[in-house]
Amino acid sequence: MPELYPLHLLNKKPNFYGFSGLDRSAHIRQDEGWLKILEKQGNAKVVFSWRSQSMVNLDKPGEPYATILALNVVSEIVNKADNVVFLGEKSGIAYLGIDLSSIEEDRLDELIPSVGVFTDLRQVGPLLERFEGSLLAYNRALLFWHQKNKFCGSCGAVTRVTKAGHQINCSNTSCGQLFFPRTDPAVIMLVHDGERALLGRQQMWKPGMYSTLAGFLEPGETLEEAVAREVWEEANIDIADVRYHSSQPWPFPGSIMLGFYAEAKSTFIRRNDNEVEDVQWFDVNQLRNFASYGKSLPRLDSIARRLIEDWLETKV
Ligand SMILES: [Zn+2]
To answer: Which of 294, 296, 308, 311 is the most buried (most CB within 10 A)?
Structure first.
């Protein structure tokens, strides 16, 4: 890939957890001996995952960074890992992900150098350097998929990891089912009536936080229909003019968020299901001074925040 970050694909700033500029180098996955080859080349580095938590160095308050170690200093860990996957290459370095989920928590310290702590990526994501955030997000999503596919969904036999972690094969030769990494598409949309934005909140969120409406795409639906359905279910509002904004990998645990704007054709809110606790219209002034109303916007690393901020920027 010619550029460190492929920002020419966008006409706006990139969302968190994507646009890493990582070359996925799919040719490396083809060789069953890929790990030995990379060990020999000596240019590989690894990131660590344990039960969907990522290893991060938290020594400097407010300045976390991903724990990334050279492959050739962690060969003992590789031998004890549940799984080792190839993520891709960047600037001449090959990046691998190591899953240690089967190791009991009190044994981790013996196995791994004390150069970080296993942390939920959501706790540190906005503070990480963008490439590191994207790398850990990718690794988290891929290893979560592995954790959920240890047995064949067709016949129940144990599965075998192939293609450097990018394919899983059923070990039962009479079945032979192949599985590929899964990403669940979800739509997320800022609905507006020109002057106000429609935001909602879920009961489990921190008090006062409101965000754009969202939901998973269902089989047989277009993205536009999913946007309209979710807005109808959550607010009983009719919409038109669904426009794509941008997308974001969201590995909590394995989604891609597809961001849209849409125009409201009606404004009276009535909730049709209990997915959201509250839905309200907020005008530009309210949103710009949200804290003074005892409310907060969604997290900095979310596409929901981008949708709201980009919409506010269009309002002078
Ligand atoms: Zn099978």
So the answer is: 308
CA–CA dist 66, 58 (Å, integer) = 9
Alpha carbon of 161 to ligand 1 centroid (Å): 13
Compute, in angstroms, the gap from residue 155 CA to the centroid of ligand 1.
Answer: 4
Name residues with Cβ closer than 5 Å to ligand 1, which is an ion: 152, 154-155, 157, 170, 172, 175, 177
- Domains along the chain with CATH numbers: 7-148 (3.90.79), 151-181 (no CATH), 184-313 (3.90.79.10)
Chain segment 272-294, per-residue pLDDT in tens:
778 899 999 999 999 999 999 99
Confidence band of 114 (pLDDT split at 50, 70, 90): confident
Q: How many Å apart are CA 117 and CA 75, to the nearest integer?
A: 19
DSSP 51-115: TTEEEEE-SSTT--EE--EEGGG-HHHHHH-SEEEEEEEETTEEEEEEE-TTS-GGGHHHHS-SS
